[in-house]
Amino acid sequence: MKDLTKGRPIKLIVLFALPILLGNIFQQMYSLADIMIIGKNLGNNSIAAVGATAPVVSLMFNIINGSITGFAIIVAKCFGAGDHDELHRTVARMAVFAGGLTVLIIAVMAVFIDPLLHALDVSESIFAEARSYLIIVAYGLVVTLLYNFEAGILRAVGDSVVPLVILVISTILNILLDLLMVCVFHMGVVGAALATVAAQAISAAVCLVYLIKRRPFLLVGKKDFVFTAGSTAELLSAGFGMALMYSIVDIGSIVLQNGINGFREDMITAHTAARKIFSILMIPFSSVSATLITYCSQNLGAGRYTRIRKGIRDCMLIMLAWATLAVVTIFLAGRGLVGMIVTDTDTPTGAAIADTAVLYLKWAVAFFYPLAILLGLRSALQGLGRSLVPIICSIIEMLWKVVTVAVMIPLFGGKNGTVGGTVEQIGGYFGVVISEPIIWTACAVMIGIITLVTLFHMPKEDVKDG
């Protein structure tokens, strides 16, 4: 366990973020390996089938992960304040609310999966594969919840190493199962989905054994299932507020995916490849942001206001440095990275698909600086209990994605564009390319001003011990 209320902030932040960073890298390595295995063995249409469902999968995962992250803010706050009794009660409430939320998501997906895919404008040529992949991932949310719940409470009390070790084992197993089910048993995208669920189930089981054997103080009993109005309201505000923030963004992404799915399969393939690499580039951002939530929560509970300001500053410097490295990486090696995913890049169609993905990535990384500010300060506000502002930013982002489909895509030529390396060739898809950079910049300005005001009004002196 790691107490983030004592010691040099930047050292603590780096040491705490490093295991999260490595864990996210392994997760994205699996995600990349998954899409590479699908692409090389099943073809670009199967990549398009998985990519067409990506925003829905992301929505399901982020509702669960967002709620757990939000609930864990209260756990971290209790841990920072040294109130272990309330910590136990908070964990018990987490289990009830997160479990109920997961059951609800699975039920909704079971009933509405076909209408949802039709609403996404998934073409008939990839509909069956997309449906099979999505339904298996949806039913596997039970094990997704279990692992993230266990890892969430461990990170809240400063243990980010053990979740990493378990995740590494899971990732390696996931890739091996992918190869077995797709390449040996020829189960297609169904095999890829089953491999993911199986590996997550093993992760959850191992993590549970660790909690029982090594962190018994985090286990709860019947007496901990106490629901008072004040504590329940605080927990629901943090958990469902974070889930709402994540889901609002993903709802916007689903709307945007509807616009993207209206293009040809090769454009969907290019977008899917670009987003996979984009996700890898986002790893340091998400790792430092997750650290900042726990850091601010623990220090807020302990009344260490000076440390909060220093920690936010140090995190922003780290994220801006990564933004610079990401820009250099994509402009020098972007084509090579895309070539690891897209098949037949030596053919005119394959080369055009790769060109489109690279064009998307170059525009995206050029605006990583405002994105770093947005993600970092949004997490800081979440850790400080100011969840309303990030939710408002998420609503704005969602509405902008609706505008992208309704206005930006038609403005640049509609859905008649073709894959290629120039703005003129891709036509309306360029509206998608520049959509996120525009909203990142606008929201970064807004949340930056609000964060400065919040820190200015925070007490200038720390709470004295004793």
Structure description:
There is one protein chain. The protein has 466 residues and is an all-alpha fold. The protein has one domain (9-457). The protein has 17 helices and no strands. Helix 7 (161-184) runs antiparallel to helix 8 (188-214). The longest helix has 36 residues, at 84-119. The model has no long low-confidence stretch (mean pLDDT 86).
What key attributes describe this structure?
mainly alpha, globular, 17 helices, 466 residues, single chain
Give the topology, please.
Elements: H1 9-42, H2 44-52, H3 54-81, H4 84-119, H5 124-139, H6 141-156, H7 161-184, H8 188-214, H9 229-261, H10 265-281, H11 283-302, H12 305-339, H13 348-366, H14 368-383, H15 388-411, H16 423-426, H17 429-457
Helix pairs in contact: 1-2, 1-7, 1-10, 1-11, 2-5, 2-10, 3-4, 3-6, 3-9, 3-11, 4-5, 4-6, 4-9, 5-8, 6-8, 7-8, 9-15, 10-13, 11-12, 11-14, 12-13, 12-14, 13-17, 14-17, 15-17
Helix content: over 70%
As a percent range, the share of strand residues is: under 5%
Instruction: Give the strand tally.
Output: 0
Distance between the termini: 23 Å
Number of domains: 1
Largest beta-sheet details? none
Concise synopsis of the structure shown:
It contains 17 helices and no strands. With 466 residues, the protein is mainly alpha-helical.
